[in-house]
Amino acid sequence: MLSPETLEKRAQRAWPSLLKGELAFPWAIPLGSPRGRELLESFDSVLAWAGGIRRLAMRHGLRLVEILVRHRQLGEQSLPQTLIVEDLAAYLRWQKKEQLYRQWTQARELTLVEFPMLSDWIHKRTDVLEDRLDVWPQCLSVLRYFLKHPRPDRYVRELDIPGIDSKFIETHRPLLDQLLQLVLRLEPSGELVDSLRSFCRKYRLRFDPLLIRFRWLDPRLAAQTLGLSDLSVMLEEFQQLNPPVSKVFISENKTNVLSFPLVRDSLVIFGQGGGVGALAGVPWLRTKDIYYWGDIDTHGFAILAQFRVHFPKVRSFLMDSRILEDCRELWVQEERPRATAFPRDLLHENEAELYQKLESGSWGTNIRLEQERIPFHHVLAALEDVGR
Question: CA-based angle 178:184:158, to the nearest 5?
Answer without folding.
Answer: 85
